[in-house]
Amino acid sequence: MQLRNRVTLLTGAARGIGRAISFAFAAEGARLAITARSEPELRAQAAEINAAGGEAIAFPADLADRAALARLVRDVEQALGDVEILINNAALVSAFNPKPVVDFDDDYWDRSLAVNLTAPYLLSKAVLPGMIRCQWGRIINVASIAGKIGSIHAAAYSATKHGLLGLTRTLALEVAQNGITVNALCPGPVRTAVSDLRIRYDAGRLGKHFDDQERSLTPMGRRLDPDEVAGLAVFLASDKARSITGQPYNIDCGLVMY
Is the dihedral of CA 38, 142, 125, 66 positive or negative? Predict the structure, then answer.
């Protein structure tokens, strides 16, 4: 129970990496506020966590709405207390609208910036005063290997993930003496339904079969399981990682190596 009673706000919680993190954190004793736009899935997920002996409350919200962000933090604090762990996982991904820059959808660019970068900035800004008062806190930003390298037909996603790493490092410097760590996870391809969409798109673009395209994504010849990302998130939120801050961790089956 490494996270016993730690109030945790997790965005993008209903699917994929977010869903895996929610169950991993619940198993470690965290008190969870989970948020996403998909209200039925979110409420069912909270009920499943609670039935298993964890603690989770669903807070449906559209993170592109600045007013909704302010309400979200206020509602979570009223229900559970100051947020001690913030996990910025929600994101719009390239799979929903892949295009080269010359043809890119400007509205999708704007919404991607709002959800992928502005929302983590505003949520961090909102929860930091409580963390500073307590002289303890964790902010974990779920970025991507696309925040370290270019990603074809994914300009908005890659640009926002590069920006999220800049935000991570700056926040880490600013709060390093307040008992607060700020780190980023940089997953490679993860086995999710949304990732399937992107693989189908690239397989069609390149004239390849789905399975061949999937195997070509990483040196290990496979995608990550969401649980593999969740385990690293638990570690970074725990006291075992209290001296780690400002770090962007690749977890990518060897795709990006230094």
Answer: negative
